[in-house]
Design a protein that fits this description.
The chain is α+β, with helices and mostly antiparallel strands and 333 residues long. The chain folds into three domains: 149 residues, Nucleotidyltransferase, domain 5 (2-Layer Sandwich), CATH 3.30.420; 100 residues, ATPase, nucleotide binding domain (Nucleotidyltransferase, domain 5, 2-Layer Sandwich); 63 residues, Alpha-Beta Complex (Actin, Chain A, domain 4). The chain has eleven helices and 19 strands. α5 packs across α6 and α7 crosses α9. The longest helix is centred in the last third of the chain and has 23 residues.
Amino acid sequence: MSRDLAIDLGTANTLVYERGRGIVLNEPTVIALNTRTREVLAMGHDAWQMIGRTPSDIVAERPLRQGAITDFDVTQRMIRLLLHRVRVGRFNRPRVVVCVPSAITEVERRAVAEAARRAGATDAFLIDQPMAAAIGSGLPIHEPIANLVIDVGGGTTETALISLGGVVGLDAVRVGSFDIDAAIQSYVRREYGIAVGERTAEEIKVAIGTAWPVHDELKAEVRGRDLASGLPKTVILTPGEIREAIDDVIVEIVDSVVACLGKAPPELAHDLISQGMYLVGGGGMLAGLDQRIAHATEIEVHLVDNALESVVLGAGRCIEDPAALRVAFHAGR
């Protein structure tokens, strides 16, 4: 059996699916480098732990921003390390299917495919993340009914209306959960005069971040560096403050969903009233985001059970079926 692999090379997390085995790797998309020697020191969880804690000659960075490659060499080395971790060697080079945001350009698509080939793949194919997410969520995409998927990732938000195996309407914005983290950092700096790091902002988001009021709201104790004195300082944040801080980002995400709905033909728009919409992606797991979108559109929103894994599972289901591999993907050449 061929060792086909599916890779969801996300801005925040990278997941790898192996044919016949399922998901074999799930790591943050972070790599740590020695800036003087360009030696790779760590990747994934180990590198994520280094963010904001490294000396001047070591940098822990995300090679993808807003779904696009910002450093081709680092991305290529990271894909090579991913393949090595799933025991890909010189004599068992696999075909690789890479999930990419629909918002990226053709130049960026070629860069992703070329990075995968240079990293050790015999060939690289691309599939748009919304289509893969719909397949991974178990939606009947080949039937003549409306399937609307909202994929909120680390750097992009994509809303796709799918019917009869094709995309009928699409709206994509380069806004995602990293922008929510950045908004929290800016709010804490502006309102309390405290600098907090990227990791701390993410922890605040997970702990008390909400896009819509929820029951049993808890407060969070946040430690950071006082900008005036330079000394450590502790403040208490509430969910209401975080909602205020991230509101501009949430509005942009909601507006993108509304824009996609505006592209729906009348019959498919009618279907959505009964079918609802499906929310996937790590950013889609923000508490209350489904309620916020449902309130704005007056259409029910379902958060899928495997929101974080739906994209790679969809690509994985395609590589399990050789016919689907030929039909569903276009070669990234």
